[in-house]
């Protein structure tokens, strides 16, 4: 099985221009994401790693990091569009591709490893993505965070088989009589880690589909998959207390990320 890991790293973010080059604890965000990928695949074969960008500054920085970099167009609407465009420019045929977001420097390396393993064990999977079952303390922190940056942090509703039913920038599910559930360490809420593994044919299909109604409302590209009945399988990660971290969506998130490094 041939796998590609492509890091879409866009400079021209409306909310946070130049985000992949932002320094976090003395190291660029992109550098940290590349380190995550390299650690994940250091013992794996047939895996290609590349950065996909629309900006010469990021292209130059990727080369400084000694990682393959691919220039993509300014017209990519989503990270997945950019991943597919870059994939087509690689000189190889791939079975499985992971889009590792360039603004998620705290992605656990085991997330990538488990996604590859899930597809190896069941190549009927079309899309796979990781989630974390939040402890109550982590859910409380997410609630506080959303008062400052309401569109950072995504939650997922999943069924007993791990199939994703929905994703939202709101915290789902709402919990009636919450005090009755707080006797357990873990809450009923799962936080989504924003990276996706696709069977290549599924990624091609996804990119060809029009933007979904709820995708547009929430700003979540994975809802296009669910709106078109494309199943998303989740894997659950075990993350130590205090290390749950969503993507970097604003300068405020950078400050929060640096506190994690203290």
How would you characterize this protein structure?
The chain is built from nine helices and twelve strands. It has 262 residues and is of the alpha/beta class. The chain has one domain (3-261): Alpha-Beta Complex (Spore Coat Polysaccharide Biosynthesis Protein SpsA, Chain A). Strands 1, 4, 5, 6, 7, 8, 9, 10, 11 and 12 form a ten-stranded mixed beta sheet that branches. α1 packs across α4 (109-121). The termini are far apart. The model has no long low-confidence stretch (mean pLDDT 90).
List the helices and strands and how they pair.
Blueprint: E1 3-8, E2 23-24, E3 27-28, H1 29-41, E4 47-53, H2 56-64, E5 68-71, H3 79-89, E6 96-100, H4 109-121, E7 127-135, H5 136-148, E8 154-158, E9 164-168, E10 186-192, E11 195-199, H6 200-208, H7 213-218, H8 222-227, E12 233-236, H9 251-261
Parallel strand pairs: 1-4, 1-6, 4-5, 7-12
Antiparallel strand pairs: 2-3, 6-11, 7-10, 7-11, 8-9, 8-10
Quick overview:
The protein has 262 residues and is of the alpha/beta class.
Descriptive key words:
Spore Coat Polysaccharide Biosynthesis Protein SpsA, Chain A; globular; single chain; alpha/beta; 10-stranded mixed β-sheet; 12 strands; 262 residues; 9 helices; 35% helix; two-stranded antiparallel ribbon
Domain count: the total is 1
Relevant CATH superfamily? Spore Coat Polysaccharide Biosynthesis Protein SpsA, Chain A
Count of helical regions: 9
- N- to C-terminal distance: 40 Å
Catalogue the unreliable spans: none
Q: Estimate the strand proportion.
A: 15-25%
The radius of gyration is 18 Å
Helical residue percent band: 25-40%
Helix and strand content put the structural class at alpha/beta
How many runs of DSSP E, i.e. beta strands? 12
What oligomeric assembly is this protein in? single chain
State the order of secondary-structure elements, H for helix, E for strand. EEEHEHEHEHEHEEEEHHHEH
Mean pLDDT: 90
CATH architecture: Alpha-Beta Complex
Question: Given this structure, which CATH class is correct?
Answer: Alpha Beta
